[in-house]
Specification:
It contains eight helices and 19 strands. The chain is α+β, with helices and mostly antiparallel strands. The protein has a 13-stranded antiparallel beta sheet with strand order 10-9-8-7-6-5-19-18-17-16-15-14-13, with helices on both faces. Strands 1-2 form a two-stranded antiparallel ribbon. The longest helix is centred in the N-terminal third of the chain and has 13 residues.
């Protein structure tokens, strides 16, 4: 049907398919493009015409042989430590690169003289496991959207819609981008305000991502309602120590996007927390919403989602320097934005999806635009607009090769409030022993219950 995968054709294809039926599957013949003219994940295999985006090689599975990686739960060494930037985009020259920048990136250049983007050679050499690739191809011909796009059915352990036909399929690809089956570990978050002050939070997070649970399997996963279960215990600051949040995420969010419960040491009781969803403020300083996590997560039902043409953008990629354990938080968390010295940007193709608030729904963002890395489907940039159409918040998510996943995946999330001149940085690990590790044994299902929350809270 489609004989070429060049960018203009993909963009035209996106435009033609905006009004496709929400639950369409691709044919077996169309799915055969995966692993041939498309990558196993559904990205354009070839590079761009100017050679600034290379062809996909998929030559690295896990840690490359030239890095000294110590295993899960330890820092990911930089696979390209000796590379230098090709050039740097600054507040003085950014306009000449505007075609490859987002509204949010342009706003940061216009607002802060100190903001800059060092541009490095683009890499497309990391790959996912054969199991992820096999399931992604199976999903292409089996997974469908259900409940008017508020969930999907018969998807498992891979991208649900590797040949997407509409905006809803794109937003679910992002939410279901490759992930760990389970992780356990502590991470730091900080909000940096315009006066230079900071607010800190340290959480111990235990996650069971059932969508990516090999132990569960496709049949068992699709026979139960959950996408993920998460237990979060606050370790600091002292005034919040001992707080616990339990979250159940659902595969079909028609009836409920999530269930959440909260334990507060002052009351020594577990209470339902129905507000932990949508635009409820979250994190130190309230600089983001609950559904800003991952740049977007949770129920899709308050927006209409539209696919826009594929773009070539400078995105954060291979950002191992930002995670370097030899770099202190004080060096990273500079006023107005993270220290550009530790950032790395590369030119990549991205899928673009726009959510516009439905007339009968409420949310503090009237529009949100997400940019999805074509090789992972993870959102790496997001712009959120207020009711007057003015850009309010712009968010960034760094990407590294997660050697224990294996494959490219997200690391640090940065949320910039352009009205407050403040930002939050989540999932920092420089002053930790490393990122959350893959546990040797999964918690039993009864661990993610309110009974366990009470037990943990009263220890």
């Amino acid at each position: 049907m489609f004989k070429t995968v060049r960018l203009p054709v993909i963009a035209a294809m996106a435009a033609l398919l905006l009004h496709s039926t929400a639950n369409a599957k691709v044919s077996p013949e169309e799915a055969e493009r995966l692993g041939t003219e498309l990558t196993p994940m559904g990205a354009i295999k070839e590079g761009n015409g100017t050679g600034t985006i290379p062809p996909y090689s998929g030559s690295i599975l896990g840690a490359p042989e030239w890095v000294d990686y110590q295993g899960t739960g330890t820092h990911f060494p930089d696979p390209y430590p000796d590379e230098e930037p090709l050039f740097t985009i600054t507040a003085q020259n950014y306009k000449q690169y505007a075609n490859n920048l987002t509204d949010g990136q342009l706003a940061l250049f216009e607002k802060f003289e100190t903001f800059r983007m060092p541009i490095y050679p683009s890499k497309r050499d990391a790959r996912y496991s054969d199991f992820v690739h096999e399931n992604t191809k199976y999903n292409a011909t089996h997974t469908i959207l259900v409940s008017e796009g508020n969930g999907f059915q018969d998807g498992f352990h891979g991208t649900p819609f590797p040949i997407p036909q509409n905006g809803l399929e794109l937003i679910w690809n992002h939410q279901a981008s490759p992930n760990y089956e389970a992780t356990n570990g502590a991470l730091d978050s900080a909000s940096v305000f315009s006066d230079g002050s900071m607010s800190w939070l340290t959480n111990l997070e235990e996650r069971w991502i059932m969508l990516y649970s090999e132990a569960l399997g496709r049949e068992a996963y699709n026979a139960q309602p959950f996408n993920a279960k998460v237990m979060v215990q606050t370790l600091g600051p002292a005034r919040k120590k001992g707080e616990i949040i339990l979250v159940h995420e659902y595969r079909d969010v028609t009836e409920q996007s999530r269930n959440a419960w909260q334990y507060l040491p002052g009351t020594r009781r577990v209470r339902r927390a129905p507000t932990i969803s949508y635009d409820f403020p979250n994190g130190p300083g309230g600089l983001r919403t609950v559904d800003d996590a991952l740049l977007f997560n949770g129920a899709t039902d308050r927006y209409t989602w539209k696919m826009e043409p594929v773009r070539e953008l400078y995105i954060p990629y291979n950002n191992n320097r930002l995670d370097n354990p030899n770099v202190a938080y004080d060096d990273i968390l500079t006023p107005n934005h993270v220290n550009p010295e530790f950032m790395r940007y590369e030119l990549h193709r991205v899928w673009v999806v726009v959510g516009e608030l439905r007339p009968d729904k409420r949310h503090i963002y009237a529009k949100r635009r997400l940019y999805l890395d074509e090789d992972s489907w993870a959102a790496v940039l997001a712009d959120n607009y207020d009711g007057q159409g003015v850009l309010w918040r712009t968010n960034i998510r760094t990407m590294v090769n997660l050697y224990d996943l294996p494959g490219m995946g997200p690391r640090v999330e940065m949320y910039h409030d352009l009205q407050k001149n403040a930002y939050a940085a989540n999932y920092l690990m420089n002053e930790k022993s490393g990122p959350p590790s893959i546990p040797k044994k999964l918690h039993p299902d009864k661990y993610y219950t309110t009974s366990m929350v009470r037990k943990l809270g009263r220890r």
